[in-house]
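Go through this chain.

——
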Amino acid sequence: MASGSPYPTLQPTKQGTIPFLIPGAGKECFTFYKIFGHLTATNKTPCVLVHGGPGLAHDYMLSYLPLFEKFGIPLVLYDQMGNGLSTHLPEKKGDEDFWTEELFHLELSNLMSALGLDESGYDLVGHSWGGMMGSTFAAKNPKGLRKLVLSNAPATMQSWIDAYNLYRSQLPQELQDALKRCEDSGTEQGDEYQGIMMNEFYKRHMMSLTPWPEEFLKAFEWAGKDDTVTSTMMGLSEFKVAGSTANWSAAEAVDKITVPTLVINGKDEGASDESIRPFVEGIKGAKWVKFEKSAHMPVYEERERYFDVLNDFLEGK
């Protein structure tokens, strides 16, 4: 892992690519994955880590390595299609019929089948978008899924946007005015707008640590190199719904989730208490843990407690 990371460097036990046939892709596609530990030669259920975005990469999920090094849980990390070291399809930018949640469900199913986890069993931890997509995946009762963790994931896209607009209204007025001025002039990607977002907004509502861990920044760099997935699925504004996930909601599917589920959120983040309510109230027996000293990234902000909570849930304590 990169220097400055909260956890030491560890090489994967195995890494590679899995073919993924996508009708309409126009080319052969592959999903990149990493495995830490052994998936079968253990009495521990492997844990599959699903990164956020849409449009980021697995790099920041390396922050979950304590599950393996401290607790002995085998881990599977992967880059979702169009991201990181998996196949990129920039020619599909803007194609909302191609970039759908279902594509990522199919990719995850394909990966589980290729690794044999649909037969031997696995737990799934989804962070942010990974939890959103993971919730509706779990509602399909996929073969092999044992437990589900929805970490910092809203149950609807609109509730995330509503939370972010509320937090924006709480910024000092001069910062609100500057954001509006940049939006009106179409300079959201400029230094002033991005500076306010990075130095003021995200420090309050994404992650309070300074500087951000290098592997977290690297995950975002992938989206900067190729914004096909991000721009097509949710647009480039934090404050407006757009793209193929504009009307996304898991609220109607939560009662179909039958596996034990842990719901996690932080304070003053996009996955607000209101936005996770459908998960907490709609999934039978769901357990909710809130991290009051964290925003969107308790995996970094309250690291020791976060992993104790995860391990206790995954190990059935």
